[in-house]
Amino acid sequence: MLLHAPNLKLVFVRNKIVIEAIAAIFFITMIISTIVTYELILTSPELMKGIQQVIGSARNCITIPPAYSTSLYQFIFLNNIGHFWNPVRIWVWIPFVGAFSLGYELLLNAIVIGSVASFASATRGAAYTISGLTPHGVIELPAFILEFAGLACWHITMTRAIYSKLSGRSVDRPLFSEGIKDTIVLSLLSVALFAVAAAVETYVTPRLLGV
Amino acid sequence: MHENDEQELLRRLEDLVARRALTDRLMGSAWMLIPVLPILLVIALVAGFVQAIMPMVPNLRGLQGSAASSSLLAQLVGVYALAIVSLYAALFLLSLALYYLIDRRNNHFKRQQLLFKTLVKYLETETKAKSAHPSTTRLAELCEDSMFDEQGRSAGIWTILNLFVTPMVSLIVAFNLTQDLCKHDLRQIDFQETLISALAEIGVTLPSSVNLKPLKRDTILLLLLTIITGGLFWIYWFHILLKDYNEHFANQALFEDKLLAALKPTQQVKKCGTCGGSIPENARFCPFCGKPQTS
Which of A5, A140, A191, B53 is most solvent-facing, going by the fewest CB within 10 Å? Predict the structure, then answer.
């Protein structure tokens, strides 16, 4: 019922400003991060070697399942959808206070994605980066944005209710239920998109990269 | 006696309307530089830091104790000092903007309350002379509510808090200013609607096309989006803070002009070619900006 087309359209209309703001900030930060990383790599090639060493040592700590395997699919999918259920980040759900952490996560993810794209392009070439990141990226980035928008919606709904109570007014019940429904719809949509993105990353991207 | 009272109240009304040139200050788009400035500064400082420091990074070990290491240290201190000075300058400008925003809100609300009060008195004088009507009671209630709810906020204290405690204070100020305007707008529209019907009952007709659409802003949404976007959404919030007040002042001015024209139909008014203020048709100089008027 929640995911019916007219209902979905309404959810997008109601949360237009939230989705647009998050998408705009995400892409602006990602572009700035890409440019700054590229400038860093150009001005100091030594730094690139250092980063390569860090990435190499990180790979030793995490075991990535082989390409085309179900375990790789599960690894990517669960890693993406479980991002905010991780004990380190779970406090992102605390109304209002968690919004600060959510902001940090949004900017951090945008910076990391921008830097990785720039770094991969500098080490492996633009064609490799585009074919390696674009196919799943075009699905995964909207999924990220919807995930963040869902969480933002949760904070807005809960803070609005708490603020009403603190001001001695009664909570606007229909608005509250609408906010919770919007949170669920946006989160479910992001999970669906993450499932598709993980499938593309597991079965399509390795083929394009010739793995 | 009644005639004298009416003339006195009309003169008072005209005086209050004329005062809007001082109280309802419009803030232009140049103020938008203030929220953008810190972001531009941070980008410029990061770029400057990268350009100055990164080429030396590979040779850092070889620099120990050399003249080049002193130069590197001097550059680092320079960038740090520049960052502190420029970010504090940006914070000072932001505090100045907050001062102006709070000050014009206070002045506008104060003038508005006096205007409400005078209008209520005018209607009471008129209804005593003609026939009593209940709209005046409603207007008096709204006037009292406004006096109680819309008290002045201390512009100085908020500015000092923002400058010396934390720039996060600007979010609280923006939150309050946005909420205040929404409540004020709603009350004002209620007042205008009641006033229009009250005036109609005593035979004064206000021309139509007065904007009676209340302003609605979700302050919680604005605050949370500013936090979630790491402060970048603040640019948009600051923009609507400027725009909403400017538009409110413009709508208010339009209503006041129409009201004055309806109450004093014999006096023709025109707009000043320089500042846009409402001035008598035969005025040779604008009483607000002092510029000479052509016929």
Answer: A5
Residue B252: what residue type?
Answer: Q
3-state SS, one letter per residue, for B133-177: CCHHHHHHHHHHHHHHHCCCCCHHHHHHHHHHCCCCHHHHHHHHH
Domain containing residue A73: 5-209
Per-residue pLDDT tens over the stretch A106-127:
999 999 999 889 988 888 888 8
- CB contact under 8 Å between B232 and A148, yes or no, is no
Angle at which helix B67-129 crosses helix B155-164, to 10 degrees, equals 160
The whole-angstrom separation of Cα A108 and Cα A101 is 10
Task: State residue B270 phi and psi, 5-degree precision.
Answer: -140, 170
Q: Which residues contact B94 (CB under 8 A, 6 or more apart)?
A: B34, B35, B38, B162, B167, B170
Answer yes or no: is B283 within a domain: no
A25 contact residues in B (CB cutoff 8 A)? 229-230, 232-233
CB B45 within 8 A of CB A36: no
Q: What is the pLDDT of residues A136-182, one digit of tens each?
A: 999 999 999 999 999 999 999 999 999 999 999 999 999 999 999 99
pTM over 0.95: no
The single residue listed with the structure tokens 């690139």 is A48
If we measure between CA atoms, which residue out of B46, B44, B70, B43 comes closest to residue B56?
A: B70
* CA-angle at B114, arms to B112 and B120, nearest 5°: 100
ipTM field: 0.87
Tell whether A106 lies on the interface with B, counting CB pairs under 8 A: yes
Judged by a CB distance cut-off of 8 A, whether residue A160 touches chain B is yes
- Indicate the number of domains in chain B: 1
Is A103 in contact with B230 (Cβ distance < 8 A)?
A: yes
The count of C-alpha atoms lying within 13 angstroms of the C-alpha of B207, restricted to the half-sphere facing its C-beta, is: 11
Instruction: Identify the three-state secondary structure at position B230.
Output: coil
A175-180 contact pairs (CB < 8 A, 24+): A178/A14, A179/A153, A179/A154, A180/A154
Both structure tokens of B50:
């990268």
Rounded to whole angstroms, how far apart are CA atoms A142 and B39? Answer: 26
Output phi, psi for A196, to 5 deg.
-70, -45
DSSP string for residues in A137-151: HHHHHHHHHHHHHHH
The answer to whether A200 and A139 have CB atoms below 8 angstroms apart is yes
Identify whether the C-beta of residue A149 lies closer than 8 Å to the C-beta of residue A186: yes
Specify if B196 maps to a domain.
yes
Distances (CA, A) of A123 to A49, A59, A207: 10, 17, 20
Cβ–Cβ below 8 Å for A107 and B220: no
Q: Does residue B63 form part of some domain?
A: no
A177, A192 Cβ separation under 8 angstroms: no
Give me the domain span that covers residue B223. 2-58+69-277
Using a CB–CB cutoff of 8 Å, tell me whether A94 touches chain B. no
